[in-house]
What does this fold into?
Amino acid sequence: MLKIILNCNDYLMPFNERARDLRIHNSPLWLWHRDVLAKYVTREMEISGGFPLPESREACIVYQDNLYFDAAYIDAFLAEARKRDRPSRAAFSLKDASFREHALPLSNSYTQFDDYYLADLWYYPNGPETEADPLVIDSQTRELGYYHVPTYMASEQGDLTFQVPLRGLMAIDSWVHIFIADVVYGLFSRGARFEQKLEEHPGAKLRTLLKAILEGKQVLDCSELVVIGRNCQIDPSAVIHGPTTIGDNVTIGAGAVIENSIIGNNVNISQGCQLMLSVVGDGSFLPFRAALFMTTLMENSMVAQNTCLQMCVIGRNTFIGAGTTFTDFKLIPSALRAIDGLGHLRPSNREVLGGCVGHNCRIGAGMLIMPARTIESDVILIGSGKPREISRHMPFEESDHHALAEGDLHTRQYPRHGEQETASW
It folds into this structure.
């Protein structure tokens, strides 16, 4: 089957980078696409500028490269489309709770057609055509809740719940969608699939139990749920609950607690760190007592000691100083707004949401970042003698390094779309 990739050249704030180059589940999105579709595709081509599509008479799958989809969704989509044997386009209904609650807010990639929202994913059995029928795939959504939000802190509901699909597809149009793809459509979904597997297949439940007995571990700690790479050094006092994936050359110190997370290669997690429902990129470093909860940390970044990140997204090559706190509750119970795919502030449909820091940033110690605030790539924020509060979006022009005599030592690596990149030597 031929794979045709439509390039989306929109840059996501605050990263100033295309969605395809950002990491989802600790893998560049373009590489995630290739791995998910590998068993179906024999050759591929990329197109800049979208339609018209090249002429071909073979079966092909066409998608825009800012889409996130998992293997379960693609398997179901292609199976149903092939059964139909006619051009089909992925579609959603507002009856789909995961799409309505998580994918649609802040997005500008879906096309509304009658009662459907069309996504940029097509299947053509005999080559590209001008028309395609909407194809709605059941996402098999499950409602999962994590903790109770006091009613005086929430504008609409008292429980923090997520609509978790077992088959996931969404457009990455905002930094919030990275959080949703990694945590809700990723880690939560992985756990839900494992629970479904145990419910439907008694053999899988028995195999997991036997492994736990043979290894002398609790069920959540056994190798069926905790996959560890090569050359890892893990202190015996560390607590690791699955489903968790740990890469190669990882060091985990005494007293660390890790639950349902993805840890990349060459990661150092020091004593007393706590990670829950989080993704840690390759080459990252967490000194002692750093805490991540439902947070994405991209490659080669550092979160210093006594720092707490909740529901945040942190770009690559970024440093977060000691004692910095990212808040996630809005003290006045009104809707939280976040930057959408067009750079506008819109309701995020989230009662609780952390902040986002771009690539190549340096955030000083003792900062307080308010909910849903963003810090653009290449920004430096220096701590002062008193606690410093970040209560709005911080663009590159307001970076503290501009006022420093040695500020020219910090070069801009991620300019906005259309701006000139600064040369570095």
User: Anything to note?
Assistant: The mean pLDDT is 91. The helical segments are 29-37, 71-84, 97-103, 175-200, 202-215. Residues 87 and 124 are 5 Å apart (CA to CA). The two ends are 44 Å apart (CA to CA).
